[in-house]
Amino acid sequence: MADIISKENEIDIRMQEKILYVEYKKKLLELRKVQKEKEAVGQVFTKGLLPLYVLYILSLGQTNGNDISHKIGERTNGFWVPSTGGIYPLLKKLEKEKLVVGEWNDSKKAQKIYTITDSGRGELQNKKHLMRGKIEEALEVFKIIYSDLYN
Question: Which residue of 32, 49, 71, 99 could cross-link 94, Cys pair, CB 3.0 to 4.6 Å?
Fold first, then answer.
């Protein structure tokens, strides 16, 4: 009789383990989906607006990559602070495209200071013109979605 009860408990424990495992897998999938959605939203900023905004920041004056990140954070009241891990590869790309020039300064910190080129200023004006309509559309979409969800 004790053997039968022991086997029933063992079966019950295995069933509970399976149920917990299925629930765990379901929650893990949900978390991955949320993470992908966050990354997709972040890519709109990183891939679309970041190059344009970096050129804009540099149009205000020369600076280094770390300061670019901080200036974007200041200008957006901390809502968007791009990581320097995203800024420096972008600066390298802009440098290859001859839109910016990076020169090492002579200070003890040995920082690379970036300056926008004439080509970079032209690209900034061109991209501002091209993206204006898309940014305005995005703002309208966000207003509608915000209104639908929160009003």
Answer: 99
Half-sphere exposure (Cβ direction) of 98: Cα atoms closer than 13 Å: 3
User: Is the CB of residue 66 less than 8 Å from the CB of residue 80?
Assistant: no
Phi, psi angle pair for 104, to nearest 5°:
-75, 130
**What pTM value is reported for the model?**
0.66
Q: How far apart are the first and last CA of the chain?
A: 64
Whole-number Å distance between alpha carbons of 31 and 105:
45
**pLDDT tens digit string along 43-102?**
555 567 899 999 999 999 999 999 999 999 999 999 889 988 889 999 999 999 999 999
